[in-house]
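> example.struct
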């Protein structure tokens, strides 16, 4: 079975963006579209882990937790980068 990188990134970007948008609407916050797009792009880039050799379950758990935290912080963190 072939996995195409462009399709993987496009589908993951769209799904991540829609999930972040739904979470923002559910929580009643209005982040900027650029922040949501950047966070979705980070989440899509995190999906490239499937091309690396398999790791232990603990390593994969911590990787997924770190990507999830980075995506949420990128989309919803109220602090500004100066």
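> example.seq
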């Amino acid at each position: 079975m072939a996995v195409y990188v462009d399709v993987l990134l496009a589908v993951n970007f769209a799904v991540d963006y829609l999930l972040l948008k739904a979470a923002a609407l559910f929580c009643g916050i209005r982040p900027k579209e650029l922040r949501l797009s950047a966070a979705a792009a980070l989440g899509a880039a995190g999906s490239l882990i499937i091309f690396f050799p398999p790791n232990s379950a603990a390593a994969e758990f911590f990787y997924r937790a770190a990507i999830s935290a980075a995506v949420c912080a990128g989309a919803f963190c109220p602090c500004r980068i100066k």
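> remarks
DSSP finds three helices and no strands in the chain.
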